[in-house]
Write a structure and sequence with these properties.
The complex is a heterotrimer of chains A (361), B (480) and C (163). Chain A has 361 residues and is an all-alpha fold. Chain A has 14 helices and 2 strands. Chain C is globular, with a radius of gyration of 20 Å. Classes of the chains: A mainly alpha (361), B mainly alpha (480), C mainly alpha (163).
């Protein structure tokens, strides 16, 4: 029992570590990369290439005066920043980063799963918890007692619910192929074993689901953009229209919580994209080779592969943000309900038919 | 026929036709929309034919979720008759009220589907979902005249109270499940009669809640408060549907649950239902006397009729009760739809208040119409040779056979009271002078068909009831 | 342990259920309802019905309550008036309700601990799916019709203009 608790503590520490490293790094990358894309310099004063900038930012947030405007609904105003951070953290905790492996510690054999909680319903849990993320925004928007905030909150609730449907349907076709709800099973299915997954019978593509389910992958990725309120779907906080939207009235660490939540959601969303469509820790053709490595090397390689993919996808997020203009709100809704919803549904039907045929023949 | 898939055929047909109506609605211009009523009517007729096809092979199907015994099939016929007649009434009426939309016909068909699911459900879950399909369709239909405040008010009232009733009903199901470990009606009846219930008290709570839930749907006394306002505010064609098909569906499920699942506990639940029946009859009849508006009077009278129908259930003998109940419901369907049809005809566009003036001297202006209305009133009052008389006769004799003498006596007393206000309508039609400013309207073809069919039905059931009653022998035979 | 959790979650569920109807601010009512949903989900998990629990959260908490709050906020129902019922009928209503509740508890206590044992399979998703698509196929499909009706009605009643 104590060893179990210790392990959970260690895992939590690792995950929190990943998260606390990636999020500030992402903030810096975002600023530097955007500057590069716009032919500016970006923050380059604190430390070499501005590397210590995130720490300076964090310090600034800490030492700012903690203002609570008098016209707000105090309880909910304070609850909202917490409510927005928790779901994305919880979601991340069920994503496995490597295969489970065994080792012995203090004379006990331990079966180590590189995920904090292995819940039996896997991906459904992810969707359930992710769907709660909207509360932080809605509550923040309402409690602020400010028109712009409220509009931002309302926009986001409509937007997130609309895209959740497409997202869920896109994931459904993946579930149907995997025949399992467990994220681990889904990743395992995508591991290349030398035989399966040849595209058109010739090209030796691995089982990465993005090759088998390109439409689902596309819809899922775009839906993740919408769920994280990133450009081109950042209408809840559209600065030009809403002065920052739902977090207009927030300052100091509470603003930082909202700010971090966005990046945190990006990390979680990217991890999901990788797990569902980009093969998790799979390395395409090298999978059989990796599987033959000694256990700790294997785990190390898998972990590195997952992290590398995570960073690549996060870069993609940033590049998209600084490349595309914002949608208009009605366009966003039309796209969600009249295009993606139908496409995702169509994809589910096609997948079902194909699976049905394959199981018959 | 051994393929059990077909037990749901009448329902599938209705759902199919309702979808057809919805699709056709998009392609038709506004003036052509009454044609959707014809499409829906064809659906009803096809469904009726499929019922007769199923008649000879009663069976349970779909892992005991559905039963197609004569009780269910005859209930189907009642719902379909009432739906069909309502459709005929509606086509012109909707245009007059400026609410000629395809959704109306689709919802009507779907409501009938829900009603059928309630009658054929052999599992409390099936019955519950049927109830919900029916209720939600009717909530919307009640508020179908969206620009009319009265209609919206009636929809809202019906919805809010109906949601409560649904909650009671569902909680009752949960309690019955807790007590018996099953939601299947056959198994419940078995468990109850074998006395292997897990908790007697849970079962009692469950029964009480089920009575409240059903009581609301069929408008029994303490749960009736919504009835007059909703009946009055809703579009009149919808009121005709509510007072016939919805009530029949409520009683069909009521009968199914109490006469088969809870039949072994007959002695335990008759007491409370006895009181409810007596209060319902007296309340409905006495309040109906005071009404000036005919539509409202019919609403109160429908409460009173729920009381009579409850007597059939109290009698508690599966065959006798269900037979007399269904007979009464069929007669009531013919009578009430025709009566509301005449109310529709005499009302002027957009008007929801009706008073006796519109009926004054109807016999001079429209002798045939006055005749039909008189037949309806006579039938509702229970005077021979009409369907209403035979229905009451069967119900009261069932009560007497089951030794509920007082209940039968009180029922008869109530019928006598009701004669007063029904005959008053006839009196006004035949002996009062017509208002001078009256403008003649014309009867639509659909309305004519409704009135003719209804009069035939009323007299047919009233003079040769044996043919129909023969069909209802052993109507719940699957359980015997 | 399981009992302790059961009572804790039930208690929170009941208390927050009461808060839903006593709060004057509709947004708070909505949030307490949310808390009730969470407690119910926790109770489902205690019954090993993980799938139902997760669906409860995803559907009720994640979608329906968000839309509820959306509407409440849009209509700006901040502080509703004290109550619509005059004092006397209100007291009578409360009295009858309490009487009913006492009666209920009294009868219910007699049946305490005698409820039906679970005869459904453990809440694995596959088993649930099998049940839904074999034994309960009729209620399941009928629920589809029910949703169609609800959708049809909502669209009809909410449509701005008919042609």
């Amino acid at each position: 029992m104590p060893v179990d608790l210790l392990l959970i503590g260690v895992k939590a520490a690792i995950f929190l570590g990943i998260w606390l490293t990636l999020v500030p790094a992402m903030v810096l990358v975002e600023r530097r990369l955007s500057a590069f894309m716009q032919d500016r310099l970006g923050p380059n004063r604190v430390g070499p290439f501005g590397i210590v900038q995130p720490i300076a930012d964090a310090l600034k947030f800490f030492f700012k005066e903690d203002v609570i405007p008098h016209h707000v609904d105090k309880a909910l105003y304070l609850l909202a920043p917490a409510a927005i951070l928790i779901p994305s953290l919880v979601t991340f905790s069920v994503i496995p980063l490597t295969e489970p492996f065994g080792f012995s510690l203090f004379g006990q054999d331990i079966h180590f799963k590189f995920q904090i909680a292995d819940v039996s319903i896997g991906i459904l849990f992810v969707f359930a918890v992710a769907s709660l993320g909207v509360y932080g925004i809605v509550l923040g928007g309402w409690a602020s007692n400010n028109k712009y905030s409220l509009l931002g909150g309302l926009r986001s609730s409509a937007q997130m619910i609309s895209y959740e449907i497409a997202m869920g349907l896109a994931a459904l076709s993946v579930l149907m192929m995997a025949g399992s709800l467990s994220i681990f099973d889904i990743i395992q299915m995508q591991i290349f074993n030398g035989e399966t997954g040849k595209l058109f019978g010739v090209l030796p593509v691995s089982g990465w689901l993005i090759f088998h389910q390109p439409l689902a992958a596309l819809i899922f990725i775009i839906a993740v953009f919408a769920e994280t309120n990133r450009l081109p779907f950042d209408l809840p906080e559209a600065e030009q229209e809403l002065v920052g939207g739902y977090h207009t009235e927030y300052g100091s660490m509470k603003f930082a919580a909202f700010f971090m939540a966005e990046y945190c959601n990006m990390v979680t969303g990217s991890a999901l994209i990788i797990a569902l469509f980009l093969g998790g820790w799979s390395t395409l053709f090298f999978d059989p080779w990796v599987a033959g490595l000694p256990v700790f090397f294997k785990i190390f390689v898998q972990f590195s592969v997952f992290m590398t993919k995570l960073i690549v996808v996060l870069f993609f997020f940033v590049v998209v943000r600084w490349t595309l203009p914002r949608f208009r709100y009605d366009q966003l809704m039309n796209l969600g309900w009249k295009v993606f919803f139908e496409l995702a549904l169509l994809n589910v039907v096609i997948t079902a038919v194909v699976i049905g045929f394959m199981s018959v023949s | 026929m051994d393929n059990t898939v077909f037990t749901l055929l009448p329902l599938m047909i209705l759902v199919g036709f309702s979808l057809l109506v919805l699709v056709a609605d998009m392609m038709l211009a506004r003036e052509q929309r009454p044609a959707l009523g014809i499409v829906a009517l064809i659906g009803v007729i096809v469904s009726l034919i499929s019922c007769s096809w199923l008649w000879n092979a009663p069976q349970t199907a779909w892992s005991d979720m559905i039963v197609s015994d004569h009780f269910a099939l005859f209930s189907y016929i009642i719902f379909l008759v009432s739906t069909g007649l309502t459709l005929l009434l509606s086509m012109r009426y909707l245009s007059e009220e400026d609410i000629q939309f395809g959704e109306y016909y689709a919802l009507l068909l779907l409501a009938a589907t829900g009603a059928m699911l309630m009658a054929s459900g052999l599992d409390l879950m099936t019955i519950f979902i049927g109830l919900e399909i029916l209720s939600i369709s009717v909530y919307i239909l009640a508020g179908f005249a969206r620009r009319n405040e009265r209609s919206l008010e009636s929809a809202l009232k019906y919805f809010l109270l109906g949601a409560f009733a649904t909650g009671f009903f569902l909680y009752g199901i949960a309690m019955v499940y807790g007590a018996t470990g099953t939601t299947n009606i056959k198994v419940i009846s078995q468990v109850v009669s074998e006395g292997t219930i897990r908790s007697q008290s849970f079962l009692w709570i469950g029964i009480a809640l089920l009575v409240a839930g059903f009581g609301f749907k069929v408008a029994l006394f303490p749960f009736h408060v919504w009835t007059p306002d909703v009946y009055e505010g809703a579009p009149t064609s919808v009121t005709a549907f509510m007072s016939t098909a919805v009530k029949a569906a409520g009683f069909a499920a009521f009968g199914r649950v109490f006469l088969s699942a809870l039949q072994p506990m007959h002695a335990d639940w008759t007491g409370i239902l006895w009181i409810l029946a007596v209060f319902t009859m007296f309340f409905g009849n006495i309040t109906a006397i005071a009404q000036r508006s005919v539509k409202r009077m019919l609403a109160y009278s429908s409460i009173a009729h729920a009381g009579y129908m409850l007597i059939a259930i109290i009698a508690g003998d599966a065959n006798l009760s269900s037979g007399s109940l269904l007979f009464y419901l069929l007669g009531y369907a013919f009578t009430n739809v025709a009566a509301f049809g005449i109310v529709i005809y005499l009302s002027r566009k957009g008007e929801t208040e009706f008073d006796g003036k519109d009926y004054a001297g109807l016999a001079i202006r429209h002798p045939w119409l006055a005749f039909v209305m008189a037949v309806c009133m006579v039938s509702l009052a229970g005077i021979p040779p009409t369907a209403g008389f035979m229905g009451k006769f069967y119900i009261f004799s069932a009560a007497i056979k089951a030794k509920f003498y007082w209940l039968a006596v009180l029922g008869v007393i109530n019928s006598v009271i009701s004669v007063y206000y029904y005959l008053r309508v006839i009196f006004v039609m035949y002996f009062e002078k017509p208002a001078a400013d009256y403008v003649h309207g014309t009867l639509s073809l659909g309305m004519k068909i409704v009135l003719i069919l209804s009069v035939i039905g009323i007299f047919q059931l009233g003079t040769v009831p044996g043919s129909v009653m023969a069909l209802l022998q052993n109507s719940m035979m699957v359980f015997q | 342990m399981e009992y302790a959790l059961f009572f804790a979650f039930s208690l929170v569920a009941i208390v927050s259920g009461i808060m839903v109807i006593t709060q004057k601010n509709a947004v708070y009512s909505g949030l307490y309802l949310l808390l009730t949903f969470f407690c119910l989900a926790a109770l489902y998990i205690l019954l090993h019905a993980e799938f139902v629990a997760v669906v409860q959260i995803a559907v009720y908490a994640g979608a329906i309550m968000v839309l509820f709050l959306f509407v409440i906020m849009l209509l700006n129902l901040r502080f509703e008036s004290d109550s619509f019922a005059p004092p006397l009928p209100r007291m009578i209503g409360i009295g009858v309700g309490l009487l009913f509740a006492v009666q209920f508890v009294w009868i219910g206590l007699g049946g305490m601990g005698a409820a039906a044992e679970r005869n459904i399979p453990e809440g694995t998703t596959a088993a649930l799916g099998m049940e839904l698509f074999t034994k309960y196929i009729v209620p399941f499909e009928a629920a589809g019709v029910l949703l169609l009706v609800a959708m049809l009605g909502a669209v009809y009643l909410a449509k701005r203009k008919h042609n």
